[in-house]
């Protein structure tokens, strides 16, 4: 099975619909750099697809007025929140974090990995150019992140092959 057809993650989430802005339960399947969604779990025909290439993924801060809504936003690259932004809702914080991590790995895996929400190569080039040091600034940031949050927080993404074979 190749990387495009292998299911990376699947499960129930809510998706905000377009015109009415209501929440609909959908079965999501993450394969390669595409997020497919269906009205039912075993449905053969997809209801829609979100192409992930070049997108960013953001976990939206908890809102006390909506305690059962743990949101993830998928936005096209270089785009402010727009009609193309997709909002997903998980039932728990842990589920939201799992989905956000899986989506980021799918997006950055094929381009050599990602760190702190950007392609690894771009971040490395920027750090070397702006901080003029033999060890990129990002290494310092990574160590600080691990020291502050431990290894439970997703901050350094592994290469795509390591995820699939690890």
Descriptive overview:
- There is one protein chain.
- By secondary structure, the chain is an alpha+beta fold.
- 29% of the residues lie in helices and 28% in strands.
- It is built from 4 helices and 9 strands; from the N terminus they run βββββββαββααα.
- The protein has helices spanning 93-109, 120-131, 137-149, 160-165; strands at 7-16, 23-31, 34-38, 48-51, 56-59, 70-75, 86-90, 114-115, 118-119.
- A 7-stranded antiparallel β-sheet has the order 4-3-2-1-7-6-5, covered by helices on one side. A two-stranded antiparallel sheet has the order 8-9.
- The longest helix has 17 residues, at 93-109.
- The model is unreliable at 156-166 (pLDDT under 50).
Note the main attributes of this structure.
single chain, 166 residues, alpha+beta, 7-stranded antiparallel sheet, two-stranded antiparallel ribbon, 4 helices, 29% helix, 28% strand, globular, disordered C terminus
Count up the helices: 4
| Spatial order of the strands forming the largest sheet | 4-3-2-1-7-6-5
N-to-C CA distance: 16 Å
The structure class reads alpha+beta
Helix and strand topology:
Elements: E1 7-16, E2 23-31, E3 34-38, E4 48-51, E5 56-59, E6 70-75, E7 86-90, H1 93-109, E8 114-115, E9 118-119, H2 120-131, H3 137-149, H4 160-165
Antiparallel strand pairs: 1-2, 1-7, 2-3, 3-4, 5-6, 6-7, 8-9
């Amino acid at each position: 099975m190749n990387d495009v057809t292998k299911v990376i993650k699947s499960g129930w989430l809510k998706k905000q619909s377009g015109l009415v802005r209501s929440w609909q339960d959908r079965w999501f399947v993450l394969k390669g750099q595409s997020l497919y969604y269906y009205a039912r779990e075993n449905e053969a025909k997809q209801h829609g697809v979100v192409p992930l290439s070049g997108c960013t993924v953001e976990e939206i801060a908890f809102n006390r007025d909506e305690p059962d809504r743990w949101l993830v936003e998928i936005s096209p690259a270089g785009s402010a929140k727009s009609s193309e932004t997709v909002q997903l809702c998980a039932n728990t914080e842990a589920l939201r974090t799992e989905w956000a991590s899986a989506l980021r790995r799918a997006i950055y895996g094929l381009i050599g990995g990602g760190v702190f929400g950007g392609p690894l190569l771009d971040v490395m080039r920027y750090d070397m150019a702006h901080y003029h040091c033999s060890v990129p600034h990002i290494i310092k940031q990574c160590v600080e992140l691990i020291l502050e949050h431990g290894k439970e927080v997703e901050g350094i993404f592994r290469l795509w092959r390591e995820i699939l074979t690890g």
